[in-house]
Amino acid sequence: GSAVSHVVIAEDVGRTIQDWTPTLISITIGNGTVVAKYQTMGEVCWFYILITLGSTSAIAANPQFSIPVNAVRAADDNGWAFNNVGPAAITDSSLNDKYSASAGLNSDTGCLIRYSLVSGSTITEEQIDSTTPFTWATGDSIQVTGSYRIA
If you average pLDDT over residues 30-52, what whole number do you get? Predict the structure, then answer.
């Protein structure tokens, strides 16, 4: 006859937010910073990454980062052809210009970052390199928030 109550605990809502150290491809972080967080729940991984360049940092063609938990692609997906996982923002700090971008899975372990180029009524996802969409310098950043299916 006693009353029983249940208090919500971590197991009820999934794991807590965790840090991860991504492997960067075509990004030399040097004295820049990387903040990377993720959380899994069921078959989904949510993540956030902020890469801020320092004076010894550099961006080369096709910047990429590893994801915290291996991805699983849909059964009807024939390949890893830039499966979009979320929006990204790239910032030219010297002009305070922000560019729309996106991140997409290019394997079960990594994401490729591309920026959005508007030409007339068409928007395309274009390659980023050391001078595109601007010449990268100290304080410039890439920020991505996304989610994807995991095993």
Answer: 96
